[in-house]
Amino acid sequence: MPRSGLAARLTEHEVRAWGQSTGSEHGVRVLAHAPPLQGRPRTPLSPGAVNRRTFRLLLIALQPAPPMATSLLTPAASRSVAPARDIPLHLTAVVLGATSILVGLIWDISWHMTIGRDSFWTPAHMAIYFGGTLAGLSCGARVLANSFGAGGARRTDGVRLWKFFTGPMGGWICIWGAFAMLTSAPFDDWWHGAYGLDVQILSPPHVVLLCGLLGILIGAQVMAVSAQNTEGHSTSRSTVVAFASGVLLTLAAIAITEYSDVQIMHRTLFYTVTGAVFPLFLVAASRASKLRWPATVTAAFYMVIMAAQVWISPLFAASPKLGPIGHEVTHMVPMFFPLLLVVPAAAIDVVLRRMQGRNEWLIALVLGVAWIGAFAAVQWPFASLLATEMGRHPFFGGGFAQYSAPAEWLTGAREFWTDEGGTVVTLVGMLTKSVLAAIIASRVGLWWGGWLREVKR
Fold first, then answer.
1. What is the largest CA-CA distance in the chain?
2. Helical packing angle, 342-354 and 294-312, nearest 10°
3. What percent of the chain has pLDDT over 70?
4. Which of 341, 340, 360, 363 is nearest to 350 (CA)?
5. Nearest to 257 by CA among 309, 202, 335
6. What integer best gives the mean pLDDT of the chain?
7. Contact between residue 67 and residue 199 where contact means Cβ atoms under 8 Å apart
8. Of all helices (H) and strands (E), which one includes residue 356?
9. Paired residues of 160 in beta bridges
10. Apex 132 CA angle, 127 and 137, nearest 5
């Protein structure tokens, strides 16, 4: 190992004397083979003869050299020593794009529930496609900078495609998602012009759009964990991972809206569907993020997003433009109040912390049981509250309904749709089918989160 200029000013004998006086052998190992300076006498030195100046010079000489920048395409890759932003600019743009997509999606659903479909060029649609365009363009710019910009480290920092283009893995996923989203736009407009309003939400254009949305949101999550894993741990990077996971969790909650109605929250079906979906995302987030309570923070982001739309949407005046109109609507209709996912999410964090290093299937088994137990303990009585007249308070958003709903649906307590056989049958179903679904989802989440934790490009 070559010595620095300061180290060269010290003789081997001085180094050994300092090592004996401090009990450190590191200076001996580093500078033992250094030739003595010409003209300097090799007089015997006692440990106390090494003065403070020599000690300071040794500390400077023994400082480790900065690491060499290597490509992330190799397993032993390391980051460049150049100072980096705490949150990379392209990651900031992608997270903003993902947020715009989610806000636009919630806005669009509220628009359909309040106004109906009146035009392709609605503000909600523009928010969705703006988010997709922002994510796609920012990732495309990153790929071009990595591929053709100055600096060898930037040209090799990522996944290579077609021999010429190199970019972050999450960026490629976002680019693919942006293409799918933008392709679905004219397809969806033509579909409505040819066939009118959608009979079901999963029409062919909407399936393409949903795939694009998933691509961008998953890409944002992958880019966030890549920054966390390669740039070093920081609270801001780990929080971005949790936020990206929370946005993805919110999309999953929206996708199963028809299975999340208050009136089916005392049925086995509700706990089976939620158990098959939510543990997957929350367990993966808990494994991927380096926060102390990652799944809890992820669930909190979901609850804040969904609660905010309940409270903000009715502030804007709107009225239906399509029939049939079942009741008078004067303001935007929000979606449902968020499920209380923060409690079972905290249980996930506790289980993963206590069972670290155990068999993955055993962990999944405990996670599945813990999820159903914790979720049912809070959501079952909360559903009973939402079904009462108190649940129709604007805070919970139960007093709103789609404009085509009959007026009598908006008054009085709501009745639960229960399983045949009563509560006992429901509990048995929860302990069998629902727990099994949660175990499988947790096992997939463990695999996904473990993969995310290893992403470095």
1. 104
2. 170
3. 75
4. 363
5. 335
6. 78
7. no
8. none
9. 166
10. 125
